[in-house]
Amino acid sequence: MSDRIFGFFGLALAAFYFWATSIIPDSFMIDVVGPRAFPYIVGTVLTICSLYILLRPDAEPDWPNLTNFIEIVFATAVMFLYGWALSKVGFVIATVFATAYLSWRLGTRPVGSLITGVATAAGIYVVFHLILGLSLAKGPLGF
Amino acid sequence: MEIFSNLADGFAIALTFQNLMLALLGCFLGTLMGALPGLGPANGVAILIPIAFTLGLGPTPSLILLTSVYYGAMYGGRISSILLNIPGDEPAMMTCLDGHPMALQGKAGEALALSGIASFVGSFFATWGLVLVAPQLVKIALLFGPAEYFALFTMAFATLGGVTASNQGKSAFAAALGLGIAMIGSDSQTGSERFTFGHIHLYDGIDFLIAIVGLFAISEVLIFIEHHQGGAAAKSTAKIGKLMPDFGILKRSGGTMFRSTIIGFLAGVLPGAGASLGSFLSYSVEKNTVDREGKTFGKGDPRGVIAPEVGNNAAAGGALVPMLALGVPGSGTTAVLLAVLLQLNITPGPLLFRNNPDIVWGLIAALFIANFMLLALNLPMVGLFTRVLLIPTRILMPVVAMISFVGIYGLTGSTFDVMMMVGFGFGGWGLRKLGVPLVPVILGILLGNEMEVNMRRALQISDGDWSILVGSPLAIGIWAIAIIGFVLPIFFGKKVKKSMVAGHSKEEMDEVMKGGD
Fold this sequence. Notes:
The complex is a heterodimer. By secondary structure, chain A is mainly α. Chain A is built from five helices and no strands. Chain B is an all-alpha fold. Chain B has one domain (2-514). Chain B is built from 23 helices and two strands. The radius of gyration of chain B is 22 Å and the shape is globular. Residues 505-517 of chain B have low confidence and may be disordered. Chains A and B meet through helix 1, helix 2, helix 3, helix 4 and helix 5 of A and helix 8, strand 2, helix 9, helix 19 and helix 20 of B.
């Protein structure tokens, strides 16, 4: 069943890709094939493969149960938020909380995960920023 | 001998203090990453690429650092195979079969020492193979025109899964997905905006490093979270015992090493084989040669440890041949090494050997040096690496994620890119669940533009006549290999895979296999 849904999704993606290819504007520079030929080929391959996956599905994959799936979605959301927060609060604060969250969800006790977060943020800040001179996101507090 | 003078020049480049230190650091980190289950060679190199660049290292030093990591990971994979019966990465799978029984008999130290020496022999001679074979391949590659290159890229995709590919439809889907992503951004030939939808972040296309780190590292973190695998790989440091190998065994296994080096190297060079198949073939051939009745193999025969380790390390060296000489990688890890070259604005292939011999030969010299360093690191200091297995993943994986973020942010300075990387991570998790391999996606993103450019050049030459793509015997030959390589696994894939995973539980192997070569 998963593969059939996946195949449909692939077909939708291919259709979208064909449409997006068809609206690629021509530029004043021209070559024989133009900018659309290769994407059309890619779209065709996508279509054929999606049909194959749709018609000859594999055995059902081992999906996580609902709790674990929510776990994944939350972890993704936290990392996403981390990317957004980097520019708002700076590297150190964002990293403390993101690391702590991930470490907590992997089974560290709350206090332990906060310590992991602080240690990771401080460690990366010292090694990569102070010693190696990498630029990290600066927040309003300057770190 | 031109080769030796080239090699001497290479050593002159590699033997600077900075480069030696980088090689040592790379070897150390590589062994560490290889030893840790869940952090394979591809992952390890991918995480370190952005960091190497933001540190402002030049092309040769970056390459030395990252290929040392690659070789190091090949050495490191055996440690957890032997001690825990969990392969640290996919190629180390076969080492479990005899390595772990040896450890159970209290001969863990001996197995580690023997496999360390075996790794050295495999990669040392494979590096010689690289020195000898790559320049010959370059001579052939000079005959290639755009049409042949287009066919060659197609062949790379068709054979990527190797004979063990389980579903060619999904492999091809993954390749098309990668190629599709590569098309985003300004068209290199005409400047038309493609698939950007007016979004300014997409005008330059999607940086392949974002995709690689997201697909490999972030999706790995998500897998660990899904399974709540927060514990350490090992409960306590296993007793290693004496570290000296038995010299009698070493002397008697000369034939084993010789055969396995040749098999491994060939498996590395040929399209669609790679390190995992190299170690598998070496093990099976050895078993059939020296232990026909099946009395000792699988029960802790030292030769059963030596053969796959020689094989996988020889394949790792062999895999560099097509990557450097043609610019076509044959495995996930060499695809990541290709990303290193592309990021440095170096196009691998015949022109690299002609225009930048310093890079090629400096790299090869560094590989020799790294080999000796790895031998030194892996014999007396193996105890240190076994302690790494005590670090719980609940601390390790978040740190890995953060270092990935730091690398990407340091490289692009854009929080949009960091968020996009998370998106790739989540997508990669879904694809892994559905059994869609990630390596073709990466290869598609890496090679997409080059592939299109070659196609358009070929058609430019023929003035729009598509038959030029099959217009020369060379091109037809490459197409034939591509088709055979794609079709063969459909008939034999399941069979080979079954014998490869014999002796392991299925789930365990699926986890390892999905991590990419």
